[in-house]
Amino acid sequence: MKFLDLIRLIFGNLGRRKARVALTAIGVVIGTAAVVILVSLAVGLQKSATDQLYGIGDLTLIDVMPAYGMFYGGGGGYGMAPAVSSDQLQEPALITNPVLEQFRAIPGVQSVIPRDYLNAAAVISYRKLEGGVGIIGIDTDDLANIGLEASEGTTVLSRGSVIIGVMTPNNFYDPRLRPGQEPPPPPDLYNEQIQLVVMKWDQQGNVTQKNISLRVAGVLSETGGEADYSIYMPLELVRSLNEWSNGIRINYNKTGYNQVIVKVEDPNLALDIADQITEMGFQAITPQAYLESINGYFLVLQIIFGGVGTIALLVAAIGIANTMAMSILERTREIGLMKAVGATNRDVLSIFLGEAAGIGFIGGAGGVIIGWLAAQGINVLAIIYLAGQASEQGGPPPSVAVYTPVWLPVFALIFATIIGMLSGLYPALRAATMIPVQALKYE
Amino acid sequence: MTSPLIHITDLKKHYQMGGTTVRALDGVSLDIEPHTFTVVMGPSGSGKSSLLYLLGGLDRSTSGEISISDERLDQMDENALALFRRRTMGFIFQSYNLITSMNALENVAFPMQFTGIPVSERSTRARQLLEQVGLADRSHHRPAELSGGQQQRVAVARALVNNPSLILADEPTGNLDTASGITVMQLLSDLHRSGRTVLVVTHDPRMTRFATHKIFLLDGHVVSEDEYQSAALEVP
Prior knowledge:
The complex is a heterodimer.
Chain A: H1 3-16, H2 18-56, E1 61-66, H3 97-105, E2 109-117, E3 121-126, E4 129-131, E5 134-138, E6 150-153, E7 161-164, E8 172-173, E9 193-201, E10 207-220, E11 230-234, H4 235-246, H5 252-255, E12 259-264, H6 267-279, E13 282-285, H7 287-330, H8 332-340, H9 345-393, H10 407-423, H11 425-432, H12 436-440
Chain B: E1 6-17, E2 20-32, E3 37-41, H1 48-55, E4 63-68, E5 71-72, H2 78-88, E6 89-92, H3 104-109, H4 119-132, H5 148-160, E7 166-170, H6 178-193, E8 197-201, E9 213-218, E10 221-223, H7 225-234
Helix pairs in contact in B: 4-5, 5-6
């Protein structure tokens, strides 16, 4: 029997029993729609979460630190020692300049940028206002190299200038403000001179101050991360301030850098390079790793949600099996006739399996359409609701709440068709193996 | 002398019914020549229909040989039997066995779906056959809209659609009124005259007028006409 003849016959037969097919298919419609909606919801949640993560972290960056608090015995990796003898504990490897060269030699590494925090009591003042924020020294001329963008001014660091995070002005306050007085609005610091006051105390408790005047050369765009609340300045300046404050000379070749940013050429290389750095005995953190664990979590969520929908689909499958079993009883003489006119067992099996699959396909197609439309509707409503929530609580509005990827309707349709076919397997086998004479004489 | 189209040797069909063994056919041997019109007669339970279904490969014998055109049906598997039926035989049943949701044309064309004949050719051939049985104007009527005689003529057209050399009919006039029965008999006779071999199982003695050969069955055995007549007289 030709495939086209088979398809024509199957849909012809289904068309002869429209009401029953429709009623049976409704179960599949509900099941498939449930699968599409629930998995779309899980995918939407994942997309929303990963989109926000993309916003927070540049996926080409790896934060590298000495592996404090970790043990490693030839190969590195994370993990706390459950029972480690003292001779197994080692001092963490230092990130010295030769190590930086090793990092730079890893294929796919674009740049290696050391950074350090100002490790001293410091206040930033602007006119009457004072602010306490994290001060980061960074060994690059341009913050664009670590994926930062300027909302005002430049990302290029120069002598005597700083670049501030967008939330930095919010941390400024008036120290002479009396209770009940309205706090001043956050100052616009762009292109203004600010004073960095670093303090140190001697053993008698006498304080010594060092005042440095700095110009705000740029304000960074919001990242949602640490940069929003930080002030960036050249690493050399931070180093000299740390030396002055702590009264020791800092030789990075002896003490190592506290933190290094490794920028890779391609986000897809980040995990691999992070692993290589970990194997060298350092702690390497990449947003990609978070992304992977989040993706793993959402995959489980998708499977659970999909499983709930599949239960509905399996209930529908019982309906298909019932319809097909009834159909075969009613059409027993027709089966006998098919065999009498030369249909092989395989032809009969194909016809009845095809009809069951056809019900699955029709229901699946209906379910995909309804599920997709419902997902779009829920998406619109959810975005409106979540945008309202976001504006009340602060934070970016979600770009997507329910998302139907292209593979989902295709998968759901194939899945529903296969479920239909499997439901029809037993009835179809019964039909195919009927003895023709008994089928023809069936009353 | 031509070799027989159908050759049956010691054919037996036994089956169990309620703990007793029914011997529907109990050692039937016969030959049927090609291009003949054979009528198989006998009282109910004599094994007529069993013989027809075994000849059609629609049932399995208990023992014995059945050859059609020198091919052993009793040794064929299900698939080979189906293909053999498709190219060699056409069936006509007492209760027509038309598919109620299909119109006359679709019913006639139905067997061609399994043969791979192009769709356009199927339609043309089905129309020709409906015309041949005098139902060209009823081609789009469903079985429920046709009389019994018309339905059986549709079934005759369907039996011819794959151009078989052997027509097997099981009580084709059993459900028909006199006039319709005669029409169907004449159609079968026409098929015989066109060169086909026709084998009809019937109770209807009028059918013998069209037949070239008669076979009488009694209690699963082939008997003479005299034995059959005397058995018929014993029926109260």
